[in-house]
Write a structure and sequence with these properties.
Elements: E1 9-11, H1 12-17, H2 19-29, E2 33-37, E3 40-45, H3 48-72, H4 79-95
Parallel strand pairs: 1-2
Antiparallel strand pairs: 2-3
Length: 96
Amino acid sequence: MLVDYTDGIVSVTTLKKNSARLVRMAKESGQPIVITQNGKATAVLQDVESFQRLRDALLLLKFVAKGDQELRAGRGVEHDVVASRLGKRHRSQNRA
């Protein structure tokens, strides 16, 4: 495990009794809070901004992995070809 979340672990019972405080803590700290039920981790409470950053990072990683697969399959395009295509597109947009 890369990150130790032991400081941010609460039971479902604690969540029920202190939901507003825990939501505020998650929002202010930007750290997820692990919710346990019967002693086992079952859910995560996380602020929306951190959740969105995580989703964005995963999407970017997915694109990188897809690009890597394309390159390994021999479907890559040389840098100077891409730069040339982008330059042509940029110049044609500036004329319009």
